[in-house]
Amino acid sequence: MEKKINEETKNDILEAEEDYLDNVEMELDYSISITDGAMELGKDNIKEQKKYMRDSHGDMDDEEFLQNMQSVNNEEAFLRRADKRLEVYTHQKKVPYFGKIVFRYDDDDETIPIYIGMSGYQSDITGEQMVYDWRAPVSSMYYAYEKGAASYNVQVDELENDEYTGEITQKRQFVINNGRLREAVDTDSNINDAILLEALGGNSSVKMKNVVATIQKEQDAIIRNRTAYNLIVDGRAGSGKTVIAMHRLAWLLYNYKMLNSDNVMILSPNSIFGDYISEVLPELEENSVPEKEFDSLLEELLFIDEAYENKLDQSEFIIENGDQENQRIKNIKIKSSIDFYDKFNEYLDRYVSDIKFRNFHYQKVEYTGEDISAMFNGRFARKPVYERFENIAYFIVDRVEDNSPKEFPEEKKRNLARQIQKQMVNLFAERNLVELYVNFLAEMEGQYPGISEYMDEYGKICYEDILPILYLQVYFYGCNTYNNIKHLVIDEMQDYSIFQYAVIDRVFGCKKTILGDRYQVLFYDPDETVVDVLTKIFAKRNGQGGYELKELFASYRSTAEITEFCNGILGGEGIGGNTVERHGRVPEEVQCGSLEEAVEFINDKLSYGDMDAYDNIAILTNDEADAYEMYKQLSECTEVTLITNQSVVYAGGVVVLPKFLAKGMEFDAVYVMTDGNYDRSMVTRHAHYIACTRALHELYVIDVVQPQE
User: pTM score, two decimals?
Assistant: First the structure.
């Protein structure tokens, strides 16, 4: 009897909701129709306007011609907006909304239904708001509250919020496909388990997709955070960090109208990752934002002549030598530490404070050493070193101008200031950055024997040394290249050293969202994690900046069996956390006596198993050389793509790539290649953990163990 009542209730809900869906679709059809009509009219107007301009060109004066051109430009801008609106309407016809709450306001007892979709929709017939954008303030209640008391805030200005309180009396989730209501579920919780599990159980896609319908409460709180200047998110593998980052960007662009896509930047681990996330913002109806790798930033900013390594060079060295106590491995650890950073800053502070100023002459103007010192160490003390000389130079230019019979144009002032700055730098401060850094290393040699080694076997400056040199350059010269960036997103935060963050802090003075997993790092030190580095660099100074730290423990990516297997890799390091109870195959560990045997195993799985149901399958190797060898042999049996550090496009299918390029990505099935001894050191253990956590549904660990002679 109870089952029958529940079925009747379910049918009643579907019937009531189908009526509303039909109404929304009818209204959307009308909006599509009038938008189509307006676009046709706009196109006709442009044709007529251009014809008139051609026919009357000889009779028009300049003012009339410009007016007509402006009219054409306005019509073309309207067409672009209308075309975008038409695209949104067409998508909304397929899935107008995914959730609903009924909210009763405390102040006037008014009760309104709030349907929530990827985009908002206001009726062109009645003006009624029929669907609310998921990013709208009122929509936040859907993610943040169960049935019962609830509230939301509307930002009035930077300092003031209006709070609206009341009660959620109904909460529903919908599954709508191609305009048909498949399911309507009343729920007291955030996201119904069945709907969430269905979403998580599907195959991965070639590009990362939006997840607005299944965002969890703790994820939404991070996405909508307004209070943090630097928001640090430390989340376990599969907790949705990158998804949060992209949806937070969409939320920021929607709610802060002074922001546009050109004011936002993403620092990503590599080009493949950038391609992988490239479709999320367009899906959320925002323009793509600039994306950059740190190494391209390094190449762009650093102006020394010496050759130096990149991140890939260092990563491969660590993977190959991380279980050894050789000098460079020791140096990498030391040169990435907070203590080394602090000592370097003490050295630079001493160097700057020891600068001896003497009288400076330019044309007929003399500035005393005391005057220069007072400005350098007083008024301009917070600016980069050489920028202080630039500011002082403008004072000298003013004196020179006072001695001139007429005022200088601005361009002449700038040129004179640059000349004076250059002379002062040459006179008072050392400019060879590498030499200055090498002198510091020589000072540290007594405390850290061998620390003065800073070149690799090929004569390149090591990656762990080029980063302090870049910091030194920014410390002295400053950098105004990215002053237009108002929000920076940094993904895979654990891949950056303290000097990289110190550079980022000085180059990007804007607000930041920084996400990663302290455990997904090759050198893991519980006494000094990336979180310790971040909280030091982004601590509040002089009442400005500061950070908020959020942690995510739930994992949504992998099956419970894969998550348990991955947690076991790190053993006593105790990553904790929990997983959504989605079950699948137990990970399989296979031993092969040769690469050929491993290739045969993988090919058999791809050919005769159920792998053809998956869109994305990855074979992860230790480095690019191993990836190439695997690709070469496997490509003789099946269609496969090799991904390297130079790759810029990810197209799915079966791919072979080094483990360190897979960070942030996920695959339906993953084959992790090892030498059977991944537990020999902290480095190999963490590299193995990173690789295995990429798998959604199936995981195979293939130990290629060569037989002993």
Answer: 0.86
As a whole number of angstroms, the distance between CA 530 and CA 535 comes to: 9
Contact (CB, 8 A) for 517 and 486: no
pLDDT single digits (tens) 217-236: 899 999 999 999 999 999 98
Structure tokens at 163: 């709070």
Q: Residue 693 and residue 566: Cα distance in Å, rounded?
A: 6
pLDDT in tens, 550-573: 999 887 778 888 988 988 888 755
**CA pair distance 548, 538, nearest whole angstrom:** 10
Q: Calculate the alpha carbon distances from 536 to 172, 313, 382, 500, 505 in Å.
A: 44, 28, 18, 13, 11
Count of C-beta atoms within a 10 Å radius of residue 384: 18
Q: How confident is the model at residue 575 (pLDDT cuts 50, 70, 90)?
A: low
In the block, tokens 């008024």 appear at 379
What CA–CA distance (Å, rounded) separates 206 from 209? 9
With a CB cutoff of 8 Å and minimum separation 6, the contacts of 4 are: none
Instruction: Please determine, for residue 202, whether its predicted confidence score (pLDDT) is greater than 60.
Output: no
Apex CA 383: angle with CA 377 and CA 387, to 5°? 95
- Mean pLDDT on 8-23: 83
Element (H or E) spanning 334, and its range? helix 327-335
